[in-house]
Amino acid sequence: SWGIITVVVTGFFAVVSWLAGYAPPDNEAIAEMLAHARAYSAGSYLDTISPRVKDYAVVLFTWVFLVPQAVLLFLLGAFVARMGWLRDPARHREKWLRVLVWSFALGVVPSIVAANHLVEWSTNPLLVVTGVESIAINLVPVMALAYVAAFALLAPLTIGKILVRLLAPLGRMALSNYLLQTFAMSVLLMGYGFGLANAGQFAIALMAIGVFVAQAAFSHWYLRHHAQGPMERLWRRYTQRAA
Length: 243
What we know:
This protein is mostly helical. It has helices at residues 2-22, 27-42, 45-83, 93-123, 131-139, 142-154, 158-172, 174-189, 201-225, 230-242.
């Protein structure tokens, strides 16, 4: 039943997104978009506060429609955990293969369409979204199932065990790394930092990879000397005190 709710809400949101982005913006809207972009790429920290508040308002509004997707993914995760598919992925290899095939078949084309639109939109904020692109963007979470299935299939193999050893410290410090990544990319891209937001997609991708590799190395080093990440320790202390 929750799956039906998710499909209906996602379809409705796709239509709303398409209608909202179908009409080309007028001159006033164009000027506002350009000022919005300049505030991030060349403005001071104080200059970014107003556009950031507006962006958060948009994000909070869209989350009203995205909550069903998130809840469905949580429910699927709970189902997989209860069935023991992750405790012994080799035993459930055929199930994971079916999940991988179906989620990849349903998600790869929408993901490519959505990625292409977002890359074009990053260099042309005035780009009009089509109905197909709107639907594709809302179907991207389907690929999450393919990623989980791929890791589950790789886990019993040697390469999977190597990946787990490499990536596990990042997961154990998820909150710390999330905040650290936000800080690092803000300093690199924003006007109050190095202002590299206009360096181009390839350069920004290299920055993101570099930050990720640096965080992986830092997580390995940190957890050799501490039981958990700094923010995880604060979070645990707060939750234990609240309990």
